[in-house]
Amino acid sequence: MSAIYWKGVKISTINKDESKMLQTLSPYWGLLFEPTNGELREGLAHYNVSISGITTANYNRLHHALEHTGLDLQNESSQAADLHVTIQSDHAISYPISITINNTTYNLRQPSTKNRELHSMIYDGIWLPAKGSSIVIRFHPNSKRDSDKWISYLLIQAFLRKSLKPLYKVSLTDYRKIAAKTIQQINPVFAQNQAIQKVPNSEWPELAHVPAHLQEDVPVSTKPKEENTIQPFQPKEDNSDTLAFNPFKFQNKSNRTSVINPFKGR
User: Fold this and answer.
1) Whole-angstrom Cα distance, residue 186 to residue 202?
2) Is residue 159 part of a domain?
3) Which parts of the chain fold into alpha helices (H)?
């Protein structure tokens, strides 16, 4: 058994297999793990985010949820910020969350809880579809209760997306056990959001697969599949000759923001 330390304090002990899994899991929580000395450390300590459009109460909850990451979260406009985030509530959208990055809007639907892979369960199926220095996030009022949690996930992905590896070798049982020994001890607020359990399927239809080209900033790896950077939106392989439907194809209109609606009737 090996000791796990957080800021110089021993918080638990794990075995060799759990140590390997923790190294893969820690970036999902905004942490980095050094197996040689058993030290968990802040994964976003060198980044700062300017966030606007949220109440003081929402900001405080978000700050507490991400406190363990070391992220400098500013509830005001700052030109020096690494990432600018604007939060809006929109009754008009028919999606739980809509994200605009680089003048392109992605309307996301939270997927069903049925037959979901672990990496999708960790983030409620909410993924940042592209990289950018400025993000506008719109929430449907029905998603208000999940907004703080989803924002925290998107912020972690914004900076650690290349560190998120597939979790094929981590079972749900192992995940819960390791989470209880680590993130639960470090930040119970964030850990509560990670309390993966069986819940009713979302009222929202399933999220369509995002084509591989939306992951253009993820470098191609020559490592085995289980070690590659995770691509949660990569479409399933189809060997047929039929032209594959691209749910994210949109018409080009000059001087207008492109809105992607992957759920418009085929």
Assistant:
1) 29
2) yes
3) 16-25, 56-65, 118-122, 144-160, 172-181, 183-186, 188-193
Q: What single DSSP character describes residue 208?
A: P
Tokens linked to 194: 């990670």
Across 77-170, the runs of DSSP E, i.e. the strands, are 83-89, 97-101, 104-108, 134-139
Distance between CA atoms of 219 and 208, rounded to whole angstroms?
23
Cβ neighbour number for residue 46 with a 10 Å cutoff: 11
- Looking at the DSSP assignment, which residues form a beta bridge with residue 98? 107, 138
Both tokens of residue 118? Answer: 């672990």
Q: Look at residue 54 and tell me if it is in a domain.
A: yes
pLDDT tens digits for range 125-184: 888 988 899 999 999 888 888 899 999 999 999 999 999 999 988 999 999 999 999 999
User: Structure pTM?
Assistant: 0.74
Number of domains in the chain: 1
In sequence order, what are the residues at sequence separation of 6 or more whose Cβ sits closer than 8 angstroms to the Cβ of residue 118? 167, 170, 171, 172, 175
Record the tokens describing residue 187, joined without a space.
């930040």
Q: Is the dihedral of CA 160, 163, 164, 170 positive or negative?
A: negative
Q: How many whole angstroms separate alpha carbon 125 and alpha carbon 148?
A: 15
Q: Per the domain annotation, does 69 fall within a domain?
A: yes
201 occurs within a structural domain:
yes
Number of H helices, E strands in the chain: 7, 11
Assigned token pair, 124:
């409620």
Distance (Å, rounded) from C-alpha 148 to C-alpha 210? 24
Burial of 2 (0-12, 13-18, 19+ CB in 10 A): middle
Residue 40 token pair? 């968990």
Q: Which residue in this structure is represented by tokens 């304090």?
A: 9
- Other residues' Cβ atoms within 10 Å of the Cβ of residue 51: 25
222 or 17, which is more confident? 17
